[in-house]
Amino acid sequence: MTGNGGDGSVPGQRDTTALDLRRGTPVRDVPAPSPAPAAAVPTPGGHETTAIDRGQVPPPPAAAVPAPPRGVEQHLDEILSAVPLPDPIELAVLDAQGLLCAEEVVSQRALPAFDQAALDGYAVRALDVEGATPAEPARLSVVGETVAGLSGPSSIGPGMAHAVAAGAMLPAGADVVVPGVWTDGGTVEVAVHAGPEPGSYVRRAGDDVAPGTTAVQVGTPIGPAQISLLAAVGRDRVQVRPRPRVAVLSAGSELVEISTDPGPGQVVDVNSYALAAAARDAGAEAYRWGILPAERRRLSEVLESQLLRSDLLLIAGTLATEGDLVQEVLAELGPMQFSQVTMHPGPVQAFGRLGRDSVPVICVPGEPVAALVAFEVFVRPAIRVMLGKRQLFRRTVQAIAAEQLLSPLGYRQYLHGQVMRHPDGGYVVEPLGDGGEAMLARMARANCLIVVDEDVTEVAAGGLVTVMPLLLGG
Fold first, then answer.
1. pTM of the prediction?
2. What's the rounded Cα separation, in Å, for the pair 104 and 239?
3. Which end of the chain has the lower number of beta carbons within 10 A, N or C?
4. pLDDT digits (tens, 9 = 90+) for 27-47
């Protein structure tokens, strides 16, 4: 039995190039020397025997060539194409605020339900006030008054007027409402100083929404105006795209809770708080689980339980080393791919679909600044896909760089900065730090991310850069 390939050749005889992971330098396999001929070995009895040729011992196999770094778009596309769109749910209209309507809401009522006055004034016949002027007003008899609310039917004839309040039922025979300010406000007889066109200041039944027509369309964001319309057509519940349930977990033996004073080498777990807040701002129903346990069985139980109750798992931590327990347990739950992504900060990213329901799991770096940058680039768009949003990404603007920007070649750089309007128009942006420092206080002062493309290594002061404003809820 040999350790050769299927063709009987020695692995060392293949001419391949590999990467020495320890040094980062390419190494080339060297062909193995030809085996020496068998030598005659004397035996104790004086007879010569031929030694068995065991073959040349092959050199150790070269290290596997690591996968090339992935582009930001490639990693993002993989995530967006895999995240599911949760099934619609029915909610009370107030609970549906901020979500997308998932049904075509057809009104069974007319809005308004009856002909009504659009403002306070007098309901009259347009023919009776035609040509009226302050010098020669039209004088009409006031035969009644109607205010908004339950009222019986009424009517007017030629030369009559009916005082009405905004929203009040229009009397039969009237085809226009004269604003009160165009009259002398009389209670028995009114002098009309101007005659509006027929139909002016009148809301006809069904003018807003006719029975059988769509009041709210699928995909409409439900805000105060939509809630008003839903209530008007008699809907107290509506089907919507639900907020995705996002569980946020932190991995790392160095982590402690915020209530604990960290010892030497320990750091407070800020990622689970920051990422849960970011997920809520993006529209998710996010909850913080906290620091993952270090014991394998307990860790597996936690991850499995979170997969059962969540639509998306978000894990922050440095998980790219061999033998990492979290990485091993994740691999037991399904295919999880860790990749080098051409971005800075935080090039190590991971994505997979785990558990019986193939729940999306996104891993972001453990460094807090890099974790929030990765959230903006990968996680926030995924949450918006699950919400059914059409606009997945924050809007960007072009801004003038207030100072020189440097960026590593081949990596998309994300710098925190402050963007403001330029007095002469447009925007100007000032970076906070040089991108090599991960400072939470600087990030807290930032209102934007400056994006420098992979093929750009320097932006001169005064040059244009792409800026992504970080608006809350935007």
1. 0.76
2. 9
3. N
4. 334 344 444 444 444 444 444
